[in-house]
Amino acid sequence: MWETLAVPPTIEAPPTLAEWVDARLRSAILGGELAAGEKLRSEHLAAEWGVSPTPLREAFQRLAGEGMIVIEPQRGARVAAIDAREAAEFYELRLLLDPKALRSSMAAADDTYREEVRAAYEHLIARHRTLPASLDAHRAFHLALLSRCGNRQLHRTVVQLHDHTQRFQVTGAGAQRRGDPAEEHAELCQAVLAGDVRRATRVLTDHLRATLAAVEALADPTSPRA
Fold first, then answer.
1. Three-class secondary structure of residue 69 per DSSP
2. Confidence band (pLDDT; 50, 70, 90) for 2?
3. Which of 9, 49, 99, 114 has its CA 20 to 30 A from that of 43?
4. From its phi and psi, is residue 32 left (phi > 0), alpha (psi between -120 and 50) or beta?
């Protein structure tokens, strides 16, 4: 099995309607509720979610800025398509940026950070009844590792990259991946809690490389499987 990425945690009480709509739309895309290429009808979604079309249209614009939605003149909005080749490009960027963000985060580690990482890992390895719940736990663990990154632009970028690769994970299940993600997560958690930056970044890098190799194999079926 290869790594699976997670949808964002359920938003219980966001401070504004706009934020709730943004989080709900993002979750629907990342979890596969709204499929890649699907046309987005603001009136239909507004009725289903009990909101007006206006905040939905605004959310379309925000997520279009992140590349998750495509807005075309005279054709409206749709969920952006994503394929294995594009996913490989996102993983290449994660391979460059995630370890850097992890080093920054660990440099600012404190007891609260370590407890958050420990709790996220315990949630990750717990039994989950649904795929979205499993994806949620996985994403929460990886982002907990990077949560103390001091460079806000870097942190924002890696979160967006996680979201893009998560979208592919929903549709690309079944790819063969070398290694055991569960063991890699365990070793990664141990290294972070021990403050071993070199080991943590090495494990994270190997973890991402294994997934990138699996994605590249899907992008180019003639290449050897990972």
1. strand
2. very low
3. 9
4. left
